[in-house]
Amino acid sequence: MECGRCGSPLDRPGDYCLVCHTANCDAVVLDVAEDRAHLTMLDGEEVLGETTITTRPEEEGEARVIERRNFAGLIADELRRKRPETVFAAGDRETIRAVRAETHYEFYRVAGEDPVAAVLDRRGERALEVVETAPKEKLGGRHTTLIGGRTGRRAISTVAEHPHVKKIVPGPIDAGGTGSQSGLRAKVTRADGNGNVRLLLRDGSSVQENRIVTTAMNRETGERVRDDLNEALAAADLQE
C-alpha cells in the first residue's frame, strides 16, 4: 500500500506516513478473541486492509497476567502504527481494557457477530453530534449533591468526558436501598425513545439516579452511547 497523499510505500495497510506525516486510516475495528486479535483498517467506509495478531493463552496465575499484558502491548503497538481517530472494539473485554489503557484513541464498543459490518453500517448513518462543552460544565439541575464522594465525582466525570453527552442532571438520593460492601458502583441504564440514558450510582444503602442527556436521536443510537459509557465505567473500575 502507498500513502494516499505523497505516494510513499507503507509497510502495512493503513500505516501512518512518516514521510509526509499523514494518517492513511481514520478508524480501526478491533475484534479480540482469547488467542488472536483481528484489526481491520478503515478510511471512511472503505476497507484498506487487515492484520491479525496471535498469542498463546496461559491458563492462570502470573503467566497469564504476563501473557495478557504482552498481547495487549502488541495490539497497542499496531494501533500506534496507524494513529486512527477512533477504535471500534469487540470481543474479550479484559484485553480491550488493557489496550485502551495503553493508548489515547477514542474507543467505542461494537456488538454483533460481524463487527466490521456493524461499524460500516453505523458509518453510513447520520453521525451523532459531538459536544464541545468542557466536561465540568455539563453538570446541572437542582440537585448538586453526589453520593460516593470523590469516587462518585470520578464516575460523573467519566460520563461527562464522552463526546455525545450534552448534560448530566443529578437526581435526589434514596437512602433506602440494599446495602453493598463493594464501594461505589455505577451503571448506565437502557436508553429511552429519545436516546437519553440514566446513570445509577450505588454506595452502601444509598442510590442516586442521574439523567444523562445525549446527542443520540433515538433508542438505537442511545444504546450505542450507553454501551460506550458502561465500557468507560468498567475501564475505570466503577462498573457493577
Envelope shape: globular
Strand content: 25-35%
Helix content: 25-40%
Put simply, the count of helices is 5
Number of strands: 10
* Poorly predicted segments: none
First and last CA, distance = 44 Å
How is the main sheet built? Answer: 5 strands, mixed
The helix-strand sequence is EEEHEHEHHEEEEEH
Mean pLDDT: 91
Radius of gyration: 20 Å
Content-based structural category: alpha+beta
The neighbouring-strand order within the major sheet is 3-2-1-4-5
Briefly characterize the structure.
The chain has helices at 61-82, 93-102, 115-123, 149-160, 219-235; strands spanning 27-32, 36-43, 46-54, 86-91, 106-109, 165-169, 173-174, 185-188, 197-203, 206-214.
Question: What does it look like?
Answer:
The strands form two sheets. The protein has a five-stranded mixed β-sheet with strand order 3-2-1-4-5, sandwiched between helices. Helix 1 packs across helix 2 (93-102). A hairpin with a 2-residue loop joins strand 9 and strand 10. It is an alpha+beta fold and 240 residues long. It has helices at 61-82, 93-102, 115-123, 149-160, 219-235, and strands at residues 27-32, 36-43, 46-54, 86-91, 106-109, 165-169, 173-174, 185-188, 197-203, 206-214. The chain contains five helices and ten strands. It starts with 26 loop residues before the first strand and ends in a 5-residue tail after the last helix. The mean pLDDT is 91. Helix content is 29%, strand content 25%. The chain is globular.
